[in-house]
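Purpose: get a first structural picture of the assembly so the mutagenesis plan has something to point at.
Setup: two entries, given in the order below. No constraints added.
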Amino acid sequence: MSLRGARQPSLADNARSSPDPELIRRLANGELDALGALYDRYQAPLRRFIARSSGNSADVDDLLHATFLAAVASAARYDGRASCRPWLVGIAAQLLRRRRQTFGRLLAMLSVLKGTTQTFRDPRPELQARTDVARALAGLSAAKRMTLLMAEVEGMSCSEIATALEVPIGTVWTRLHAARRELRQTLCGADE
Amino acid sequence: MNKLACPRLFEAEALRDGRLVGAERLSFLRHLDSCARCSREVVELQTLADRLCNSGAEADADELHARRERTRLLAAFDAKLAPPERTLAARAWLACAAAASLLVLSFFMYFRARSVAAPDTERAVVVHADGSASWSRQSEGPVEKILLERGALSIHVDHARERRRLLVVLPDGELEDIGTTFTVSAEAGRTTRVSVVSGSVVVRIRGQAPLALRAGDTWRPSQAAGVSTCPNCEPPPAAGATSAAIIPPSAAPASPLSSTRVQGARTAVTPSDRRASPAASAEGHEPTPSLDFRAAMMLLDSGDNGAAAARFSSFLNAHPRDARCEDAAYLRVIALQRTGDVGSMREAASRYLRQYPNGFRRAEVAALAR
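Result (structure tokens, whole complex):
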């Protein structure tokens, strides 16, 4: 399949009007216009989720690409739900989690090499936050922030979040409660 | 916030997270109608969620950036869909690069081998010429040729490094080296002298039978020198018996004999040597060992190396106590080397080294055995 195929109006229009399960099925068959339609439909919320979860806008484009390409790879295993947005968010959350773990291992190794026990905290999210909510969100730990965003912004159920993050559902509840409490405390202080 | 105002306040968050189901959910929903604190908590939680949803717009990409990223994603997907063509192209390029590398490497190895082989040959065959000598040198495949027109050449051949045959082309014949140091002179279109310092050579003068000369032997045309006996040398056949003479370097002219052989510089002369002397040959009672050895030498000289090797083997088996056994064993190695049968040659060389650990040619044979 070539790029020329994606530019054909009829195929593009057809893809744009297709429901998510149909798009994913065609994506599993390697149809390029299905990926284009899926991108058009979900790139904005996914980009926002990734940007706010990672707190680093420099990686957003690459993580977004990786999310859609991973979706192509696992399209054949899609469960057929009406909206694939939680599924895509789950894939992005997995990529973010692996990236965070890799980054953490690198920092740990550098700390060992340096001979210090520095507890590094990336200051970029807080520096880049332009609103009170964004600043408060950036103050949360990455795990709590991602769990809260998946629940409150993406509308995922706790069981879906637990599955996506590969953690027990009790952990999801605990993270949500702690995240809300910290966020409200921060916002109350900011409002006062 | 005073969270202790209502004991069921925590259920507001549980309701939002979907932890309340069935009767508990209905009960809490009824409670909300009567509890202002819990109702406010539910509203605050919803407000927090709304603020979260409404924030984050700063992360949105502009239209142009989104289109550019879309194109990049589709191109990456397209590349993943069509790897075989690119793989084939990459393989073709790799094959071309590998072939080119192989070609360059082959040329490099070829020229390197040539450049290395040439100095080895130069070092392995050392030629010293007198002032009046006129000679030239050329390589013809497995044969290194030295063409002597006139004058004297002193030649040393190191067979440990030079595996090719060395042939000295004389005005009236040729001389083949079998691993030695020797001097050869020619004047007026004739070979005038061949003197062997070490090893042995075979002299082939036109119209005469080949002659095998060993260390200490000197050959001159019969008109130029006297004749004496040499038990270590092979006489030519009867046709050329009177055409040349072999004299020792230190020997005074001895009484002429019918034979062309002269006594060499060797001091140890065994009874078998005496039996193989040309005198006996002249008398027509040449013993069998000499005939066998001469036959093997003739085969070797004629270039029938396989038959020569077999004949030398027969000689060694038939006459294990003959004084020429060491020579025969050595010449068998040489014959096998010329046939190109490396395995048999090494086996014969090993056998020589076992039988003659202090032999005259142990260094050369050891090199060949390796």
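Chain B touches chain A at residues 1, 13, 17-19, 44-45, 48-49, 51-61, 66, 69-70, 72-78, 80-82 (CB under 8 Å).
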